[in-house]
Amino acid sequence: MGENGKRPLDALEKARGNRVIANLKNGEKIAGKLVAFDLHLNLWLENAEKVGEEGNKTRLGTIVVRGDNVIFASPE
Amino acid sequence: MGENGKRPLDALEKARGNRVIANLKNGEKIAGKLVAFDLHLNLWLENAEKVGEEGNKTRLGTIVVRGDNVIFASPE
Amino acid sequence: MGENGKRPLDALEKARGNRVIANLKNGEKIAGKLVAFDLHLNLWLENAEKVGEEGNKTRLGTIVVRGDNVIFASPE
Amino acid sequence: MGENGKRPLDALEKARGNRVIANLKNGEKIAGKLVAFDLHLNLWLENAEKVGEEGNKTRLGTIVVRGDNVIFASPE
Amino acid sequence: MGENGKRPLDALEKARGNRVIANLKNGEKIAGKLVAFDLHLNLWLENAEKVGEEGNKTRLGTIVVRGDNVIFASPE
Amino acid sequence: MGENGKRPLDALEKARGNRVIANLKNGEKIAGKLVAFDLHLNLWLENAEKVGEEGNKTRLGTIVVRGDNVIFASPE
Amino acid sequence: MGENGKRPLDALEKARGNRVIANLKNGEKIAGKLVAFDLHLNLWLENAEKVGEEGNKTRLGTIVVRGDNVIFASPE
Question: Among A75, B31, C67, E57, which is disulfide-ready with B21 (CB 3.0 to 4.6 Å)?
Answer without folding.
Answer: B31
